[in-house]
Amino acid sequence: MRAVTVNEYGGPPAVAEIPTPAPGPGQLLIKLRAAGMNPMDRTLAAGAWKPMPAVFPMVLGADGAGIVEKLGERTSRFAVGDDLLGQLLIPPLGSAGTYAEYVAVTEDAPLARVPSGLDDVVAAALPTAGGTGSALVALLQPLVDKTVLIAGAGGGVGSFATQFAANAGANVIANVRAPDAERMRAYGAAETIDHTAVLLPDAVRKAHPDGIDALIDVVSDAADFAELASLVRPGGTAVTTLYVADEEALRAAGITGINFALQPSSELFAQVA
Q1: Which H or E element spans position 113?
Q2: CA distances from 33 to 114, 149, 150, 203, 262 (A)
Q3: CA distances from 107 to 75, 91, 272 (A)
Q4: 134: three-class secondary structure by DSSP
Q5: Per-residue pLDDT of the chain (273 residues; tens, 9 = 90+)
Q6: Interhelix angle for 156-167 vs 127-140, to 10°?
Q7: Are strands 58-59 and 111-113 parallel, antiparallel or unpaired?
Q8: Helix or strand holding residue 137 (H, E)
């Protein structure tokens, strides 16, 4: 089969011919119809993040959608012909990459059925970005009439988080560049702020002098995150996906600080789908 691989960390990605996997006991063979692309894929290929041992050639990609083509022995969770999506960031890294024609994984991998009518290309884009957006918003519930600032709202995670937060009843302030403002309002954002035109903390403070209830930040470094977190009123929550929150300092200010890491699961991906 064809797959996009690297032969070492930092090596150039290339389309290569590698053996088509065969499903072992408890596994299923998925014929991939689409692969989701995330910045994480490049980080893993470069070796900048090593969450688990890797195998080379490393097949790139974690998110994908496709159809079950064959079942291994003692496999009962899914059937041949099932349309599935999932995040296959499983050890060893590169053994179940989705930039490929086929992948073989255990049936207890974080997989979910693709709902009828959902395009496979859309389905393949859901797991990492959609799952993260959903899980971030779940941390802040209940959100009815709460004011939430989403820093980096225009990207994949931010776009999903904006929609989920708005659906949960929040008044969302979406930090995006001007060309994305109309899209974010279509997603349910109540306000948009272009940080290239004004200073984001100043703009939020001016519009909300009493503070905001929560911050979701997917882009800021430690200093910028701390400044945005200072906008959160006591009793609120400030979440970062970049592990830059000083949780102790925020706790002293009466704010719950969270360094977020996605915990993938079939239940989460099914909910997002």
Answers
A1: strand 111-113
A2: 12, 36, 32, 44, 24
A3: 7, 14, 20
A4: helix
A5: 999 999 999 999 999 999 999 999 999 999 999 999 999 999 999 999 999 999 999 999 999 999 999 999 999 999 999 999 999 999 999 999 999 999 999 999 999 999 999 999 999 999 999 999 999 999 999 999 999 999 999 999 999 999 999 999 999 999 999 999 999 999 999 999 999 999 999 999 999 999 999 999 999 999 999 999 999 999 999 999 999 999 999 999 999 999 999 999 999 999 999
A6: 40
A7: unpaired
A8: helix 127-140
CA 245 distance to own-chain centroid:
19
Q: What is the CA angle 126-129-131, rounded to 5? A: 75
Residue 15 phi/psi, 5-degree rounding, is: -75, 125
Calculate the dihedral angle through the C-alpha atoms of 60, 62, 68, 72, rounding to the nearest 10 degrees: 80
Going by C-alpha positions, the residue among 13, 112, 111, 113 that lies closest to residue 57 is 13
CA distances from 59 to 6, 41, 98 (A): 7, 10, 7
Please tell me the distance from the alpha carbon of residue 204 to that of residue 236, in angstroms, as a whole number: 15
> What pTM, to 2 d.p., does this model score?
0.95
Rounded CA-CA distance 223/82 in Å is 47
Q: Give whole-number Cα distances, 263 to 56, 75, 267, 273, in Å.
A: 25, 24, 11, 16
Phi, psi angles (nearest 5°) of residue 144:
-60, 125
Q: Which candidate, 60, 53, 54, places its Cα nearest to that of 12?
A: 60
* Residue 178 neighbours by CB distance under 10 Å: 11
